[in-house]
Amino acid sequence: MTAPLLQIRNLDVRFNAAAGAVHVVRNVSLQVNRGECLAIVGESGSGKSQTVLAALGLLARNGVATGSVRFCGEELLGRSESELNRVRGSRVTMVFQDPMSALTPHMRIGAQLIEVLVTHERTTRRAARERALELLRWVQVPEAEQRLTQYPYELSGGLRQRVCIAMALLTRPDLLIADEPTTALDVTIQAQVIELLRRLRVEHGTAVLLITHDLGVVAALADEVAVMYGGSIVEQGSAERIFKHAEHAYTQALLRSVPRIDAPADQPLAQFTAAAQNHE
Amino acid sequence: MTESGAVRGPWSDAMRRLRGNRVAIRSACVILVLLLLALVGPFLSAYALDDVDWDHFTIPPSLSSGHWLGTDSIGRDLFVRSLFGLRISLLVAVVATLVSLAIGVTWGAVAGYAGGRLDAAMMRTVDVLYSLPYIFFVIVLTVLFGSGLYLMFIAIGAVGWLTMARIVRGQTLALRDKEFIEAAIVAGVPTARILVRHVVPNVIGPVIVYATLTIPQVILFESFLSFLGLGVQEPLTSLGKLIAEGALEMETSAWMLIVPATFLVMLLASLSLLGDALRDAFDTSQRRPA
Amino acid sequence: MLTLRRLLGALPTLFIIVTVAFFLMRLAPGGPFDEEQSSSADVKRNLEAAYGLDRPLYQQYLAYVGGVLRGDFGPSFRYRNQSVAELIGQGLPVSATLGVFAMLLAISIGVPMGLLAALHHRQFVDHAVTGLSLTAIVLPGFVIAPLLALVFGVYLQWLPVAGWEAGAPKYLVLPVVTLSLPFIAYIARLMRGGLLEVLSAPYLRTARAKGIPGRAILWRHALKPALLPVVSFLGPATAGVMTGSLVVEQVYGLPGIGRYFVQGAINRDYTLVMGVVILYATLIVVLNILVDLAYGWLDPRIRHD
After folding, report:
1. pTM score of the predicted model
2. Is it true that domain C87-298 has CATH number 1.10.3720.10?
3. Which of A35, A84, A271, C61 is least surrounded by Cβ atoms within 10 Å, i.e. has the fewest?
């Protein structure tokens, strides 16, 4: 079996706030293999985003991460910015939740795309521009040439997210991390984004680490699933097993809480009450 | 409610925060000392404001001569004159701020409460007046009506009401839609009464904070004008005027410049720091560590 | 185009100023000739006729407005053989040199200071910059000016204390530095605040995730929006420079417009005072428009409003 692409072991993330330390990620271990899609599922505040941000060295200033994060065998935690910059944006790329705030408002789309290629590859601006166009067309952004000269605010939310995905694919990364890529979008656009991610895996074999709280998205895309609650992983396994034979109470409750279209309208949604977590 | 059951209103919260702020306490102390000096100081010295001491022209500070901070080129005691200047600065600050308050609160409350076209017209006027620097207006006024103390009161106050009006209008607009105002209207309370008894007390908070922040500006303003010769005139004196006189003589008698300058800077610095602290103390939106 | 609209919008303000100026001058008590004790009634009448003060009010008004549009503000009431326009023409180069250099100095020192402070947030550099800014803001210009002159002119004797001599550099140093000090402080503070806010923006995190090196992030992604507060300050800053020049020109004995203005105020030279006010008002309006344009360049979203 080939070595895992991304291997996170015993990851702990704390923030030093005025009122004391906040422990947001507790002893998380997971891995993503080549060509695979791992979904991290959990509610808001479960620590799923912070896990990934810590892995890429993108935590806020008062955040401290301990443990081990290996990408292709190379340890990422604790490396310097310039060392991380060799991996970030080229072999591991990321798509964020809110496409409006993720793109620099005063830079044209073309410029934001081209700078990725110019930074990571030895390429001319013309070649970079061609590649940017190629990718914009792949994500099915209409009138791609025109888009290059536009500013983010001139595009709709769905288009912006597709631009962000295109931006993350320019360097043919081994791993794409998508942090709640569909949450800020409406349902029809969500379907399109999910389709894009599916095509990505099928056509290019890119591994995907997907963070979401939407079980529908998980079902459509994931091979493996890790369920997080309160900063820890409560259950991990193949998507099929999780959906069919969830073992942990939280996972079961999560699955139960998804409204069913065939349930009677007056039936209340299932609730889940957690035993209080002991916070340090 | 705290454990002891005492109710914590915004005032007591702010006062608590203020008391804990060391910079604020020290500034307040400095201001009090200066106030005391200004009021009582001149009585401690043997010399009056205009007394010309023929034996002691332009002498530096000395304890023996009785001129603790020296004299100016006509032999007038600098200690007494500086304190008089301090008095004038404080007087102008208070009166001019009151004038701004009076005009600004009225203007803003009426505009905010009336709404619609009257509001738009009134605030447009404010905008137009805002677009030019205060100083030139006031200087024009001094040209027309002659400089002097009373002009200072009115001119500075008449120009400083603009921001006050904006703040009050904003607050009034927010208040206008609250239910208790509606209730008062329905109950038939006349508009003037509503304004005075319901609107004004509720906008007072930010107004007071802003007024405290403007006091150093007003003092600066008056000193600036007096420095240029457009402010208070003889026989009165102001810190700005003293600084101007000192600047002329500074090559030979540096203390004539440094003494009033020090008083002014101390006053401005402590007022600014206190004003900032007050503003932070009233800013309930951000910090709540307790 | 947007600029044209702004220009047109500003015209009423200027017009109001000119009108108010005129009427205030005419209706205010104490004409410029009241101090002339030596003049007899006849001489007074002749003088008034010469200055057109005996014509009906509306005629005087039209004459004044017409003159202003042509750049003629009328004769100075004090310097009898010179027109206000002439006096302004003499003083403008001095004040303009002073003002422009002061702004340039303020920007070229204030911006890097603010940048450094923000990049080293909460470290020594940051505290130093913030502290310095506070002192510069609290010390008024008319205190700093004589003090600097005292230290550098009298004690150290490095620079001349007063005078102009056709703008020779050594006469410029103290006035320009004095005038620019508070603005260095304001700009540093604004730059620091602007950059600190941008540094926590989500799109900077995206740039980091793209592997863009820090310097490029600062330059390409962070700088433009961070400059916005500084740019919007330039409007009020110009007004402040004009105000500050009144003091600086007085203290250092520079023959600029500010000095003429103050003298005019003391001598109740109406035409001179109003002429300068109109000039200042026009400059401020023009500058505000320029600032608006710069704003649009920095933030594309505003352009299309």
Report:
1. 0.79
2. yes
3. A271
